[in-house]
Structures are given as structure tokens and as C-alpha cells.
Amino acid sequence: MKAENNSNKAVILAGGQGKRMKAEIPKPLFRVLGEPMLEWVISACEDAGISDICVVKGYKEELIEEYLGGRYTTALQAERLGTGHAVMQAVPFLEEGLEDAPDGNTLVLCGDAPFIDPVTIKESLILHRQNGNAVTVITAELDDPTGYGRVIRSGGGSISAIVEHKDATDEQRAVREVNSGAYWFRTADLIQLLGRLTNDNVQHEYYLTDTVAGAIAEGKNAGAYKSANPQIIRGANSRRDLLELNEYARMEVIGKHLDNGVEFACTDGIIIERSVEIGQGSEILPGTILRRGTSVGKNCIIGPYSVADGCVIGDNVEINTSQVFDSVIENGAVIGPYVHIRPESRIRSGARIGDFVEIKNSEIGDETMISHLVYVGDSDVGRKVNIGAGTVTVNFDGIAKSRCTIGDYSFIGSNTNLIAPVRLGKGVYTAAGVTVTRDLPSYALAIDRGELKVRQGYTLKKMDEKKMDDKTKKEITKRKKDE
């Protein structure tokens, strides 16, 4: 016998254009906290145990395909003729496996309503199955239901109709329970009901809501599940709506971290994606953006005005006004201000990376200090190394990139150039201004002091007397005469 969830499917409607968004992408691909609204809906399905998903695409269908990357079945609604017509395009998907699971069920969701939640999905399915419903409408109760279709219940709690706001009587408009646009169907009944839909209406479209009336007319059970989460109703028809969705989601995520012991003295400009994890006692300062599954350990200070994208950050780390991408920052490291850590880097425990330092695809050892004005690319730096200001690992020769290695306890003088590939042993010192082009043995000093040549009076030919004060003009005139 198959597991219960194996017979459950989901159809997500993602064919809308969203003209008022004023952008050439499908509306479900607009982002809330960094993720397309479509992804929010997909993840809610998967978290509820539903992985057999068909996404109905339409406008700019190639962008939906590109985003999904073959993860799910898709169906094309070439003409947008209503929600019922959209689900009709998924009938071949619905028919797959129906003989083996004749009592299977299908969830229909809107790809631009991101706040559907797994609890609502699972609990509405339980009610749907217990009552033997052909269709179960997922509803919510709103303080202000203006503009939404009202759910009219009959005796015993069954649904008798869904009445659009414009068609409702005053008594019906007083009802605050509204249709969310999400439904559970017994799959076999859904296929049958779709086959009987007509477009005999002003818009000449096929409405999915008509399946409810169709089920009732045929004597099938039609029910409604009222979600405890009224946010499942929310969608975005304009950029203003999208901003509101982002702000709601932003504060919900911040609230979750507050409950988990994370400190926020002020939330201005803070954006934390929902996949981010933060340990107790950490403080997130204004203007900070944490993205793509970043994890932050305990007792860290992140910000102000910092970005961590796809990073693993240990305990007791400080990141001040810096940007870190796809890298690992180990316990006790101090980063910033104005540091750029590029992908595939690892900053080991206790390292200190100061202002105007860029690190790319490199490992920086325990307690190493890179205080300011340095570029380290494609390099392996040992522990307790000191790298002076102006140092550059010259890792690209115009054709290929090569690596540098700097051994433990080395001291790299200011304005050193390391021409990769070079390997410096343990305890190597370089004098200021050295260009290193070959490997250096451990405990060596590299120094290059060519003859210093001084040409006296040379700059007198270059200086513009018009820009000088009177005293300097007289001095220059006198020097020129003496020359």
C-alpha cells in the first residue's frame, strides 16, 4: 500500500503577467525576501509532504522553466482564459497514476500568494478526507473582506456557494469568511468537474470557483476549511502590494529571531531571508542583509551595513560594514570595516581583517592579521601571519590564475608584491616594497634595496608657479637663478 502522501498532488498556477508590476517577468517570479513568490508556495507544499507538483506556466513561460530547472512538471496555458482553464492544462498530470490511487487528492494553489503555510495545507487535507469532500475550499476570515469572494455555508458547515463581492447581497457582504483561491479536490472529481466547466460569462473565461457549484449540483460534498492564518489571502497586484508583502515577511522573520534570543536595537534596513539561522545572543545592527541560508553563530555582532550571502559564520564573530559571499568565517574572527570577502574563502579562528581588504578564494589562518589596504587572491595564508598595508598577491598573469602560499608566523612588509605561483616557508619576512618572484625558504628575509638616485632641482621644471604662494614663488625664482 502506498504512503498517504504519495497519492497527493499539487497544481500551482503561475501563468499570470501582472501588468501593473510594470516588468517583463511572470508575476510569481517577483521576489519576497529574496525568493520568488512561486518558491514560497512550492516550499509550503514540500514542507507539507507534497512533492508531486505541476506548475502551470503562461506569460514568459521560458522564465518559469529556467527558474524551475526541471525540478517539477510544467503545463502551458497558451491563452489565459481563467483559473479553471489554467487547471485544465494540468489534466494529463492529474491523470498520471490515477488508476493506482483512485482516491488521491489534488491541491490547487496560486503561485503569487506566498504565505500559504504547511499547517493549513495539512489540516485542510485532513478535513477534506474526513468529510469525503469532492472539493474543499481553503478560506480565511478577514476584518475587512471588501473585494473578496464570500464563502456562504449551509447547515452543518458545508459550503453552499462562493459569491463574488460585486454580486453579493448586503447580508452576504457582512460575511467575513472569504475564498483564498486555494482548494483541495478529490483528483477524479476535479478532472470530471473541469470537463463540465463553461465560459458562459461576461469575460468568456473558465472559472475554477464554478467547480464548487458544479460539485454541489451533482450532489457531491463541498466543504470549507478556515485557516487560522489570514495572511494566506495576500498577494501582489502592484509594486506597492509587493512592498507590503516584503515588509510583512521581513518583520515576521525578525520576530522569529527575537523570540529565539537575537538582539535588534533597531530594525531599520535589516533584511533577513527566511532560510537564515542566527544563534542566541547575536546582535544584528541596522542596514544588515543576511541571505541564502547564511548561518550565524552565538554572540556575534553583524553590521551595521553588512552583507552575508551564503555564508557560515561561527561564534563570537564581528563583521562591521563589510560584505561576505559564499565563505566560512570561523569563531572569534573580526572583519571590517570595508572588507570584501569573495566566494570560496575561509577566515580561520581569531583572524583580524581590517579596512579596505579584499580576499578571494583564499584561506586565512588562525590569528592572522591583515589590517588594511591589501588584496589576497587564490592564496593559502598560515597562522599568526602579519600582512602589511599595500600588499598584493599577483594571482593572474593574463592567461591563468595561480596560488600563493605564505607559511605560519611570516611577516609580509608593506607594499610587497607576491607574483604567483610562489611559496613562502614558515617565519619568512619580506622588507617593504619587495617583489617576490620565487619561493622563499623558512626563516628567510627577502629584501631588495636598489641604489637610490637623487636628481636635485628636477621638480623646478615641473612646478607651476601660478599655483604657488608668494613665498614659494620667490624661492623657486631664486633656485632657478642659482641653477
Question: Key terms for this structure?
Answer:
single chain; 483 residues; alpha/beta; Spore Coat Polysaccharide Biosynthesis Protein SpsA, Chain A; UDP N-Acetylglucosamine Acyltransferase, domain 1; 3 domains; 15-stranded parallel beta sheet; nine-stranded parallel beta sheet; 10 helices; 38 strands; elongated; disordered N terminus
Account of the 3D structure:
The chain is of the alpha/beta class and 483 residues long. The protein has 3 domains: 230 residues, Alpha-Beta Complex (Spore Coat Polysaccharide Biosynthesis Protein SpsA, Chain A); 208 residues, Hexapeptide repeat proteins (UDP N-Acetylglucosamine Acyltransferase, domain 1, 3 Solenoid), CATH 2.160.10; 29 residues, no CATH class. It is 20% helix and 28% strand. It contains 10 helices and 38 strands. The strands form 6 sheets. It has a 15-stranded parallel beta sheet that branches. The protein has a 9-stranded parallel beta sheet with strand order 13-16-19-22-25-27-29-32-35, with no helix packed on it. A 7-stranded mixed beta sheet has the order 5-4-1-6-10-7-11. A hairpin with a 5-residue loop joins strand 8 and strand 9. The longest helix is centred in the middle third of the chain and has 21 residues. The relative contact order is 0.07. The N terminus is likely disordered.
